[in-house]
């Protein structure tokens, strides 16, 4: 009897784990993040939808399931923080469908490349596709957008993320403009201490992709074992925040566990 119960328990536990893996890998959620700043007038609410590390995954036919959620949130800005594709991607139909609809939903869509774009030999085709649909490429460039009487500066890092001299030159010196840095790889913040960057939006880590109870992520790219910056919100410099989205897609192992596929809705409230 005891052995039978053990077998049943084992089978049910295995089924629960498999079910959780399937759900976390294939059902995308919107992760809400709320921040405060005195650089936007009191009562202002700037919402930014961040999509990262899709790795050419499709959620629903032509992303219909994902796009349905995106339409509901009505974000002011959409940012794509790298690895839309995988380094081996050759067919961009999925991304074509996504980008086309994103631009129909929101006119302000910004993109930076990630390491998988850098390694993909067809990167120029992807860039051409994005530009054709009027997505603003922010690799090593910046843009200032008006918002409710204030200005918001968005700066993007590209492949040479280790050289931040040009980034420092782009940052406004007045310290009154809310400044966002898009950097696929979060380690870039190490060289930006003391600058007027208020918020860094990153991806790359996948949050470890597979996480364990009570431990969390064991290893992420570029940080080794038991990383400090794996997913979520961190203070990387005094009063400066880094948000790492754990992403929607997968790489290497095509599974997620205790780390559901996600995109993020970041609401920045003026105070």
Automatic annotation (TrEMBL):
GO BP terms, alphabetized: lipid A biosynthetic process
InterPro entries the UniProt entry points to: Calcineurin-like_PHP, Metallo-depent_PP-like, Metallophosphoesterase_sf
Entry keywords, A to Z: Hydrolase, Metal-binding
Pfam families to which the protein is assigned, alphabetical: Metallophos
One annotated Gene Ontology cellular component of this protein: membrane
Alphabetized GO MF terms: metal ion binding; UDP-2,3-diacylglucosamine hydrolase activity
Start and end residues of each Calcineurin-like phosphoesterase domain: 47-207
Name of the featured protein: Calcineurin-like phosphoesterase domain-containing protein
Organism whose genome encodes this protein: Gracilibacillus ureilyticus
Lineage: Bacteria, Bacillati, Bacillota, Bacilli, Bacillales
